[in-house]
Amino acid sequence: VHREEPPHFVLVPLLAPGHMIPMVDMARLLAAHGAVVSVAITPVNAARIGDVIRRCADSGLPVHFIELPFPCREVGLPEGCENLDLLPSRSLFPNFHRAARTLLEPLEQQLRRSRPAPSCVVSDSAFPWTRELARSFGVPWLLFHGFCCFALLCQHNLHEHKTHLHVASDSDPFVLPCLGQRIEVTRAQLPGAFSSTLKIQDIREQIRNGELTADGFVVNTFAELEPAFVHDLQEATGKKVWTVGPLSLCNKKALDVAERGDKASIDNARCLKWLDSMDPGSVVYASFGSIARLAPSQLKEIGLGLEASGHPFIWVIKTRDEKASREVERWLEEEGFEERNRTKGLLIRGWAPQLLILSHPAVGGFLTHCGWNSTLEGVCAGVPMVSWPLFGEQFLNEKLIGQILGVAVGVGVYTPIVWTEEEKAEVLVRRDEVARAVASLMHGGEEAAERRRRARELGEKARRAVVEGGSSHTNVALLIRSVSVSSPVVADGTLP
Ligand code: UDP
């Protein structure tokens, strides 16, 4: 009797919270659809998401975490720097990528022993070396993009048309090519690959080359959010685009929602109790993702701006280092900030249970740095957003949710975050601007009501996409079917 083995997906996430979190969500999703899944991980990261790994094991889902040594010392990284959010300086990016590249061999060795044999490699686009892994097993090599199709399309078009090279300076606005609508940006607002001061050229080139040679893209978005851009991305790249998101919605149980990525630095019950005590739709949630660290001077302006908006708020504070943390704490103390905002402000220092917060009906607005996960989580929650992009493709995400989808108000920031002490940490946005943006999001008359309505509608569409019959649900099933061992895979690994 011929018994069909389930397909085996090998997932290789970029080691950064914003990339690992959706990949682990995807692992559970693929497993729930009947696939066997292996996720490549390193010891420090495995310890950080220990609860998630244990829960996967307890639930009996066939998701296996393959722990691989990450050679920090050999490449000049401080011990334990196995995640981008642990790097003391951005100048260590090349070292980090060198260390990651060494995962290939031990990963391949472990996979040689695994049954069923791998049927597909889905790798973060930042790790183009995984192509060798896929080719050595003769299986398809798909790239996972933690971006939206709009941002991917913009980047693809810029690579093709080089429009950004025809402007005089980083601050001159120009129109993004081939979008069918007029969207302006500056070079400074584009991801690093388009910067005029590119320091990691070779890594960028490998990533771009990977994008050109991959067998398809898996994207954490859903078709109904950006149908034209999904279509145009497929047309422009000639690649199959599997939209499988929002991946955050695969977390159905309260426990999963509470803990994704790191362990929250606030007691979940306390957080829920606080939210329960607030009116529906009244709270603003302010958070800037996992990587960015704003300067103490900027954090103070945010705190005072949230306070001045007059709305209840949850404010997630992450500081660069001990010194910055002490400065912020001293200021909070001297100002009597927490005491003064006792009844309407909740401060979370460190890791927030973001999904838990966003899923609560008391939350009515999200001040976000427009990281794609956060943006999509805001969309799922059906809340309008204040956009404050900081780096990477976040300025493009801001265009999508503001100008195109009409569910966000810009805080009014036009240049990326300043990363290092030496570059002088300036205040980019003052308290009155924060307060103005939050107030116009939360009251703002008819315009704000319309924005809220659109946000609610997108939230509903997001939920429909992931249930039986929905576009993403169907795509996951099709993706699995297309790589299952019963279907022939041609010699170079491309999908039939
Ligand atoms: N996140 C969280 N708590 C935090 C900070 C971040 O749960 O305190 C999660 C957030 O829900 C999202 C991810 O971490 O899933 C951050 O990814 P995003 O793309 O928004 O931003 P990045 O961290 O990559 O800048």
List keywords for this structure.
496 residues; alpha/beta; 15 strands; disordered C terminus; Glyco_transf_N; 20 helices; 6-stranded parallel beta sheet; binds uridine-5'-diphosphate
State the end-to-end CA separation: 26 Å
How helical, in percent, are the residues?
Answer: 40-55%
Number of helices: 20
Tell me, briefly, the overall form.
globular
Low-confidence stretches: 486-496
Largest sheet: 7 strands, parallel
Instruction: List all distinct small molecules, including ions and cofactors, that are bound in this structure.
Output: uridine-5'-diphosphate
Portion in beta strands: 5-15%
Helix-strand makeup class: alpha/beta
Strand order of the largest sheet: 3-2-1-4-5-8-9
Total strand segments: 15
Can you give a write-up of this model?
It comes from Colocasia esculenta (Wild taro). Residues 10-247 form the Glycosyltransferase N-terminal domain. With 496 residues, the protein is of the alpha/beta class. It is 43% helix and 13% strand. It contains 20 helices and 15 strands. The strands form three sheets. A seven-stranded parallel sheet has the order 3-2-1-4-5-8-9, sandwiched between helices. A six-stranded parallel sheet has the order 12-11-10-13-14-15, with helices on both faces. Uridine-5'-diphosphate binds next to helix 1, helix 15 and helix 16.
